[in-house]
Amino acid sequence: MKKVFTSLAPLKKIRPGKKASLFIVYLLVVALLIALVTWRGLGDPLEITQSLPGEVGAGREEQPAVMPEKPFDPREDGLAQGLLPNGSALVEQAMPQEAMRWPLEGPIIFAHQQVYRIGNQLRFNVGINIGAAAGAAVQAAWPGMVEQVAKDPRLGWLLQIRHGGGYLSQYANLQEEPYVAVGDEVKSGDLLGVVGESARLAASTGAFLHFAVYRDGQALDPLQFLSPR
Predict the structure, then answer these.
(1) What is the pLDDT of residues 173-221, one digit of tens each?
(2) Distances (CA, A) of 48 to 28, 110, 164
(3) Dihedral of alpha carbons 126, 127, 128, 132, sign
(4) Residue 11: is it exposed, middle or buried by C-beta count within 10 angstroms (0-12/13-18/19+)?
(5) Which fold has domain 108-224?
(6) Which residues contact 224 (CB under 8 A, 6 or more apart)?
(7) Letter string b/e over residues 80-112, b meaning 16 or more CB atoms within 10 A of that residue's CB
(8) Is the pLDDT of residue 132 over 80?
(9) What's the whole-number mean pLDDT along residues 135-145?
C-alpha cells in the first residue's frame, strides 16, 4: 500500500501544470476570435439587397426600393369620381344658377318626410309625390348628366340626374324605361319620360311622379328649390 501512494505522488505534481496550459490555450483562442471579429467589423459594411422572386446568382442589377402599397382611397377610384359604364367620366359642374322648374304640373299628393304606413310599418316619404295622369310628360327640372337608369322594386322605373355642387335629382314611378340613358346631358325642360304606375310599396298608389332632391347623399325638401307657381 505504501508503494501505491508513492507512485501517485508525481502525478499530483503534474496535473496543476496541465490545467494551467489548457487555460492559457483557451485564453489564446478567445483572444483570436475577438481579434477576428474586430477586424471584420473595421472592413466594408455588408450590403444587403432584396432580390425579386426567381432571381439567382450575383451581379444582377440593383432593384428600386418597393414602396408600401397606398391604402385604397375611394375618392381616387374611377367609379367614385363618376366613371360611367361606357368609360366616360362625369364632368364636375358648378351648381345651376337657374331656378329649378317643376318636372310637371300637378298637385302635391304626398309631402317630403310625411309619414305613411305599409302593413304594420311606418315610413317617411323621401321627396314629394306629384299627382298626374298616366302618360303625362316628365321634364328635367335642372340641367345635368344622367347618372342612373334602373327599375327599383319599390319606386318602379326611375332615373337620377347629377348636377353641380353635389346635387342629385330623382324621378320615379315612370310608365316605362326613361327616354334618356346613362351619360346623357340634359337641359331644363328636356323630356325624360312619362308618368306611370310602376311603383310598389310607395307612399302613394296609382299614377303620380315621385320627385326627390339630394345633396351629398342627404335628402332635401324639393320645395326649397322649385320655383314658385
Answers:
(1) 999 999 999 999 999 999 999 999 999 988 999 999 999 999 999 999 9
(2) 33, 73, 54
(3) negative
(4) exposed
(5) Glucose Permease (Domain IIA) (2.70.70)
(6) 213
(7) eeeebeeeeebeeeeebeeebebbbebeebbeb
(8) yes
(9) 97
DSSP 222: G
60-76 CB burial, b ≥16 within 10 A, e <16: eeeeeeeeeeeeeeeee
Cα angle for residues 89, 92, 95 (degrees, 5° grid):
145
Which residue is listed with cell 345635368?
Answer: 144
Q: CA dihedral in degrees (25, 26, 28, 34; nearest 10)?
A: 160
How far is residue 1 from each of residues 6, 7, 11, 173, measured CA to CA in Å?
A: 9, 10, 17, 124
Q: Which pLDDT value is given to residue 182?
A: 97
Q: Which of 201, 178, 229, 189 is nearest to 126 (CA)?
A: 201
pLDDT tens track for 101-114? 999 999 999 999 99
CA atoms of 185 and 144, how far apart (whole Å): 6
**Per-domain residue ranges for the chain?**
1-45, 108-224
CA–CA distance, 52 with 31 (Å, rounded to integer) = 41
Predicted TM-score of the model (pTM)? 0.60
Nearest residue to 195 via CA among 137, 146, 109 = 137
Closest CA to 91 of 185, 219, 206: 185
